[in-house]
Amino acid sequence: MRHGSLFSGIGGFDLASEWMGWENIFHCEIDPFCQRVLKHHFPNATTHTNITDVDFRHYRGHIDIISGGFPCQPYSQAGKRRGSDDPRHLFPQMLRCIREIQPKWVVGENVHGIITWNDGEVFEDIHTQMGAEGYEMQSFVLPASSVGAPHQRNRTFFIGRNIANSDMLGCKGIGISRIVEKKKPRREKRFEQLCDIEHKWKKFPTQSPICGGDDGIPERMDDITIPKWRRESLKAYGNAVVPQLIFAIFQAIEETDKAMAQ
Description:
Layout: E1 2-6, H1 12-20, E2 23-28, H2 32-41, E3 46-48, E4 65-68, H3 91-101, E5 105-111, H4 121-132, E6 135-143, E7 154-162, H5 189-195, H6 212-215, H7 230-239, H8 243-261
Parallel strand pairs: 1-2, 1-4, 2-3, 4-5
Antiparallel strand pairs: 5-7, 6-7
Helix pairs in contact: 1-8
């Protein structure tokens, strides 16, 4: 599978893609600190910065899956919840990218609060707009604790499969539900070799992660941090997805893809 990430942060989706044995084709991230981390750890992927300035059409036919944790501030319970009136409401840009590339799969991520903002207006709009682009959608609220993290951290995931030009309708068989039924993703040798499935979670008594050990991000992902950027490092960890959870989602997608191809 060939993967491209949007709003990439320090590369949680990209790291999970690497664990899957997939190829990271590009990442797109506007924050300078996160760009430095991405370029250091994923040097073979093309770096894009401001998503509003990127024409993604040349990737059509070359990307199988797009991931993206589009900015959560417009919907977060911790913010002003301005929703689609917030300039950081960037799902329309993600939708444009999807329209231009037409990948087989899409995985979007945001805070739990996106479900309730304005009685679910944005949540429903995402499903409607993705459906209009030819994607069959499923959404899940999954906690980081489902893969052993020492905090709940519920996140909303939007998973879509492009069925516009496919005779294999229905991605309802995708096995996402098994993620919340197990403490850890299925054990696989390649995963154990790359990230240690047991993972040395640091049992901080926190609800919101305060460091990488709480977040499932290997320490090597932050090994280029310099002291004056420590605050940027903590912010990046706080915004990052838990890659072990993304790995489990990617596993389910790959298994579903293979089953549908039979």
